[in-house]
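Internal tracking record. Fields below are filled automatically when a chain is submitted to the structure queue. Please do not edit lines marked as system-generated. If the sequence contains nonstandard residues, flag them in the REMARKS field before resubmitting.
Queue: standard
Priority: normal
Entity type: single polypeptide chain
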Amino acid sequence: MAFLAMGIAGCQQPQRRPVDIKFEEQTITIDSLALRLGLRVSERDDTFVVLKDPANTVLIFTHANGRIFVNGKPTGSVGTVKREGRTLYVPELLASQIRPHLRRGAVEPPRPPRRTTGIVVVDAGHGGRDPGTTSPGGIQEKNLNLRVAAKIARRLERRGIGVKMTRWQDQYIELEERAAIANRRNADLFVSIHADSAPSRDARGFTIYIADGASSATRGAAQAISRSMAGTGLDSRGIREADYRVLVRTKGPAVLIEMGYLSNPQDARLLANDTFRDRIADAITAGILAYLR
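SYSTEM-GENERATED OUTPUT FOLLOWS
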């Protein structure tokens, strides 16, 4: 890498108590930073990390007084870097420091003709010591949920929507706290992202859940998302009622999406494919926008 020399001079389970996450408020993992920026960690060693997508290369030097280079251009210093075991933590503000310098790739979905406004809380189900379900191939639901939720959040932000993620990294959050985040923000919509499992391997397809006796606004959001997701190629299992805590405790409109069955080989194979996850994220985003309009 020619520019290295420049810097060397990121489904409901029983309730449990949350674990402590060090540096939670001020720093994030390097993998979480990549997720927020829509990049992947392509290379790392003890002194630098490289984040990439087809249009961008971000070089982050993690030694003392390290600097950041976006597509070969310096954009500032990294600040304090902390290590906990093999996990690397960097300042959370690096996301806003790097994002303005990124090039937009050719594959970015086109903007709609007019901007939509609103506040959406996107909830990546499970996390931390609660992995959710796991596919026979070893896909953990908590990781799948986070990847798709992050894609949805970035798409909504590009369209002018105020977005709050309940988690940006692998951490455990109480179900009541997830709903409380939406309530504190007075969210126009709470969307919880999950993947399903069943004793029978034959069960497949996506399901939209709403609380029993849900408001007409919630039903409208569920219908909009369901219509949009029908275009992904997944089977539809319809809109169902269930009193999941995140739905009952959220004061505003709230839906829970089961993207497919990790216990089903066909669904699991699709959900393991990042291109297909893009398709799901596009569909859920389109459904949310249709509801907000």
